[in-house]
Amino acid sequence: MHNPRLPLVDLHRHLDGNIHPSTIWDLAQQHNIALPADSLEALIPLTQIQDQTSDLLAFLQKLDYGVSVLADVDACYRIAYENMQDAKNSQLDYVELRFSPHYMGMTFDLNLTAVVEAVAAGTQAGAKDFGVKCNLIGILSRTFGAKTCQRELDALLNCKQQITALDLAGDELGYPAPLFLSHFKQARDAGWNISVHAGEADGPQSIWNAINLLGATRIGHGVAARHDVKLMEYMAEHKIAVESCPTSNYQTATVQNIADHPMKTFLQHNIMVTLNTDDPAVSNIDLANEYQVAKEVIGLSQQQLDQVQSNGVEAAFLTAQEKQQLRAGYLS
After folding, report:
1. Residue 7's closest CA among 243, 306, 317, 285?
2. From CA 140, how far away is CA 112, in angstroms rounded?
3. What's this model's pTM, rounded to 2 decimal places?
4. Chain-wide mean pLDDT for the chain?
5. Spatial contact of 169 and 197, defined as CB atoms under 8 Å apart
6. Fewest C-beta atoms under 10 Å: which of 59, 251, 257, 318?
7. What are the DSSP E strand ranges found in the chain?
């Protein structure tokens, strides 16, 4: 369980993977969008994982219902704002919300810069109303190819001050890191941090590429690092954090059994492991659930859980002063 005497943060949380079924239903009614369900009750199993899917791509299809109802920028603002309400309900002190402008805008061909602006405005209003600190991470959806990712990047760069980091997500196996060298150079030149999905659907080399080619200082999932001792040693030495999402990894069949999740192995190798939700609405979980899973199923001790919780603050894309302020709220 998480320690109430330490700040609680979620660093790997997809804003566009956290759209509640009730919001999907509501937006569909509002915009007269047909869904393959005749009631909210019938929609829920289509939009949430019930157990395990066949692979990452099958999991990602569950997310498609959420973005299929984003008919205008007001809808994008709404889901961003609701994500902040969710963060408050989950007792988070700080959240990093990541999103793909192209993925959110593609169904209704929305202007990508307008999507980024709406998400930034929604999260800022939510942060103010709900008292949770937030930073935004822009995602390049690799599945749509390098050209589309450049358009996505351009939209994010148009709102450079509102974005903290750049991520690469989607079909890791089909669209490897070398296709995106120039994109990430532009991101680093803009002064952004880099967090990359790697070692989820591909092997350790994908993680090496994320670090060496794209400049990642944090790795999303990173499950495959367990197969490369040199890589684990490198990550520990260079403080490259892992954004672990155990339930998601089980649901995408990245791990066949949550009890075998490599969080414990990573901690034994002194890697900065953090614990996160990934797509809470699709997975039908919250962060408290993940702490329970980490303790009861993966078998982490309370001391290890406290370390993981502290790692979340340490690995956050915040200044040293902001981290100090976050911790200061808990010093008695």
Report:
1. 306
2. 12
3. 0.97
4. 96
5. yes
6. 257
7. 9-14, 94-99, 133-141, 163-169, 193-198, 218-221, 241-244, 273-275
| Cβ contact 104:169 at 8 Å | no
Q: How remote is the C-alpha of 293 from its chain's centroid?
A: 18
CA angle 39, 44, 49 (to 5 degrees): 160
**Helix or strand holding residue 218 (H, E):** strand 218-221
Q: Cα(20)–Cα(318) distance, rounded to whole angstroms?
A: 28
Catalytic member of 82, 96, 117, 200 = 200
- Evaluate whether 329 touches 7 at the Cβ level (below 8 Å): yes
- Cβ contacts of 29-35, under 8 Å, gap ≥ 24: 30/71, 31/69, 31/71, 31/72, 31/75, 33/68, 33/69, 33/71, 35/65, 35/68, 35/69
Q: How far apart are the first and last CA of the chain?
A: 20
DSSP class of 278: B
Tokens of 300: 């982490």
Whether 237 sits among the annotated catalytic residues: the reply is no
Fold held by 9-328:
TIM Barrel (3.20.20)
Q: Where are the domains of the chain?
A: 9-328
Rg of the chain's alpha carbons, rounded to an integer?
18
Query: Tens digit of pLDDT for each residue in 197-236?
Result: 999 999 999 999 999 999 999 999 999 999 999 999 999 9
Residues 160 and 187: their CA atoms lie apart, in Å, by 9
What is the per-residue pLDDT for 51? 75
What's the rounded Cα separation, in Å, for the pair 15 and 107?
17
